[in-house]
Write a structure and sequence with these properties.
Layout: E1 15-18, H1 28-55, H2 57-60, H3 63-89, E2 96-98, H4 99-132, H5 137-140, H6 143-169, E3 178-179, H7 186-190, H8 198-230, H9 236-264, H10 273-295, H11 298-308, H12 311-317
Parallel strand pairs: 1-3
Antiparallel strand pairs: 1-2
């Protein structure tokens, strides 16, 4: 193993080898097909949500669906950053990724992931205002404010991704260059650094821990107030509709946050479970989002019917 005294430019790595997900050789073709189908369905499902929100005037004028459209856009990019590399692992192609490509992938993942984290918080806040402050909701959460909050989430996500990428790749990497993971992520890359990574691990723990914990606590606080308000609704149908809307959001948040906490809040972990757990929020969550929000949201289903109904739906709306 190299050390800090042996990190001249001619010994620095120029690319990394992504070892991918461990798998039996006889299942390579099956796993290739599974992840390929997941990727296609993820792209099509989120694109459908995005186009539905954009095309239906009743949806794209409401903050809740603006946020849903942004979430679909993020999921399409997040899936594209990670899943093609997983698919490549099940082919005879080279598993090498250029040093710059590794930097870009780590930045893009943390940029998109943290932006999504902030977006989930905004979606919880939007539901809190809609259910707990219904009379003041149009004033407290209008289209202009929603756009400003979304822009703020993108900027904050970009800053977070830049910090993590800069801190990770300021360290020298002089070999070995095999990343025991399916994409360039902080814990796996730091194990290859030819320098002390204690500060990096601490900053990663605090930074990601603070972001994730703060967002998660705000979401829980929002939903605690939402549940309290829902229980005051007198009609059973009203309670059911309110719980259905919030239940879809909570399902996605749980699938997203629990694996993140498992991966990033255990500094220095080398558990073989890390890769399997990471698949949930990098592969499964982007696939589930369009399914959950379309199957459990009556307004999205109605909008899809209006759009696919063509002229009949248009004449009905008139």
């Amino acid at each position: 193993m190299g050390n800090t005294e042996n990190t001249s430019l001619d010994t620095m790595v120029t690319d990394f080898i992504l070892l991918g997900l461990p798998h039996p050789q006889n299942l390579r073709i099956l796993l290739f097909l599974i992840f390929f189908i997941i990727y296609i369905l993820t792209q099509l499902g989120n694109l459908l949500i995005l186009l539905t929100v954009w095309a239906d005037p009743k949806l794209h004028a409401r903050p809740m669906y603006i946020l849903l459209g942004v979430l679909s856009f993020l999921d399409m990019w997040l899936s594209s950053v990670i899943v093609p590399r997983i698919i490549l692992n099940f082919t005879p192609c080279s598993k090498a990724i250029p040093f710059g490509g590794c930097v870009a992938q780590l930045y893009a993942f943390h940029f998109l992931g943290s932006t999504q984290c902030f977006l989930y918080t905004l979606m919880a806040y939007d539901r809190y205002l809609a259910i707990c402050r219904p009379l003041r909701y149009p004033m407290l959460m209008n289209g202009k404010l929603c756009t400003t909050l979304v822009a703020g989430a993108w900027v904050a996500g970009s800053i977070h991704g830049s910090i993590q990428a800069t801190l990770t790749f300021r360290l020298p990497y002089c070999g070995p260059n095999q990343v025991d993971y399916f994409f360039c992520d902080i814990p796996a890359v730091l194990r290859l650094a030819c320098a002390d990574t204690t500060v990096n691990e601490l900053v990663t723990f605090v930074d990601i821990g603070v972001v994730a914990a703060s967002c998660f606590m705000l979401i829980l606080l929002s939903y605690a107030n939402i549940v309290h308000a829902i229980l005051k609704i007198r009609t059973a149908d009203g309670r059911r509709r309110a719980f259905s809307t919030c239940g879809s959001h909570l399902t996605v948040v749980t699938v997203y946050y629990v694996p993140c906490i498992f991966i990033y809040l255990r500094p220095g972990s080398k558990s073989p479970l890390d890769g399997a757990v990471a698949v949930f929020y990098t592969v499964v969550t982007p696939l589930l989002n369009p399914l959950i929000y379309t199957l459990r949201n009556q307004e999205v289903k109605s909008a899809l019917k209006r759009i696919t109904g063509g002229r009949g739906a248009a004449s009905e709306n008139k």
